[in-house]
Amino acid sequence: MTAPSIEELAVQMDEESAAAVVARLRRARGQLEGVIAMVESGRDCADIVTQLSAASKAVDRAAFTVVSCGLTACIQAEANGEEPPMARERLEKLFLSLA
């Protein structure tokens, strides 16, 4: 038995979810640029950590949205009697990688 190709395992996000992910990642990028400027200018460690935490949360939320789209696609496929686009084990591994 051959392993499925990447195309066979692909799960596409809906436009609304993709837009939300991109917005969160852009926000995180801006926050990280701000953190770099703070470090370079010698700002207080507490301020830097606060901004790092905000950037981290933005990235985490983007990742959870991506995993949520995969889970939704699998549930919808199963409800329609179709083969899910991603194996349950792979989806679980992705979910657990966020912890």
Question: Which descriptors apply to this entry?
Answer:
99 residues, mainly alpha, 4 helices, elongated, disordered N terminus
Task: Outline the structure in words.
The protein has 99 residues and is mostly helical. The chain has four helices and no strands. It has helices at 6-9, 15-40, 45-79, 88-96. The longest helix is centred in the middle third of the chain and has 35 residues, at 45-79.
| N-end to C-end Cα span | 32 Å
Largest sheet: none
- Average pLDDT confidence is 86
Write down the overall geometry: elongated
Compute the number of strand runs: 0
Write the SSE topology.
Layout: H1 6-9, H2 15-40, H3 45-79, H4 88-96
Concise overview:
Helix 2 (15-40) runs antiparallel to helix 3 and helix 3 (45-79) runs antiparallel to helix 4 (88-96). The chain contains four helices and no strands.
